[in-house]
Design goal:
With 236 residues, this protein is an alpha/beta fold. The protein contains 7 helices and 7 strands; from the N terminus they run H-H-E-E-E-E-H-E-H-E-H-H-H-E. Helix 5 packs antiparallel against helix 6. It starts with a helix and ends with a strand. It holds the Pfam family Methyltransf_23.
Length: 236
């Protein structure tokens, strides 16, 4: 439960505080804009594909829905277990929405993963996907890929999706402070109470720097040089 709270409500002294809060805010915005109640008032079916700690299910609380968390064997929070190749044990066109948050960089074959997401989506269903542009190595259990805006849109289009929204989160200047925070974390983490307290102060300072950096960075620069891309794509 603690890890779930960290992603949804991180501490300001967390090195990833700014990233996590900006990602959550962007998700809230796209859900409000694109996810509507079905015309026949049935529940919207949502698949969290590679659910991890299932941190974002709360974002759908105001929408009548059925939420399915899916992951590889060993994740006790998943209520649907994928096979070793990441295949979803369900029929074609089973879900209105596929949620894929910070998963794509960890899968061995992005094409295979996206093809499976397309298969389980209903006609006109939506994929909400975020993944990294700039970021440090973070195996979970492996870390394979980084993307540009154009590269991410290209692979989605090739797998049968139509991108309707692509938002950059954390610009290049802001990420320079994020990188500093992550470096200090590596130096001070697990080094005792004093080192932990020092790191908390450093992390808090860098979160403020990141916020200011994003304010002053022109949109035309940050949109193509982002730490995270959040995409809304429709099953074409």
């Amino acid at each position: 439960m603690q890890k779930i709270n960290r992603r949804f409500e991180p501490s300001p002294s967390d090195s990833d505080y700014y990233m996590l809060t900006q990602l959550r805010s962007a998700l809230e915005n796209v859900i409000k804009k694109y996810i509507k109640n079905s015309e026949d008032n049935n529940q919207i079916s949502i698949l969290d594909y590679g659910c991890g700690e299932v941190p974002y299910s709360k974002l759908f609380a105001t929408i009548p829905h059925k939420f399915t968390s899916a992951d590889l064997p060993g994740n006790e929070l998943a209520n649907m277990i994928l096979d070793a190749n990441g295949n979803v044990p369900c029929e074609d066109e089973s879900f209105d929405v596929v949620l894929s948050i910070q998963v794509l960089e960890h899968v061995p074959s992005p094409q295979k993963y996206l093809s499976e997401a397309l298969r389980v989506l209903k006609h006109n269903g939506l994929l909400l996907l975020s993944t990294h542009g700039w970021w440090t190595h973070h195996p979970y259990p492996n870390d394979y890929w980084r993307w540009t805006r154009e590269g991410l849109e290209k692979i989605l289009n090739e797998e049968g999706f139509k991108v309707v929204d692509n938002r950059g989160i954390i610009g290049m200047l802001a990420y320079s402070y994020q990188l500093r925070a992550q470096c200090w974390k590596g130096l001070l983490e697990n080094k005792g109470l004093i080192a932990s307290s020092v790191f908390s102060l450093i992390a808090f300072y860098y979160q403020k720097c990141m916020h200011f950096a994003d304010i002053i960075t022109p949109v035309n620069i940050s949109k193509n040089n982002s730490s995270i891309y959040l995409i809304v794509a429709k099953k074409a």
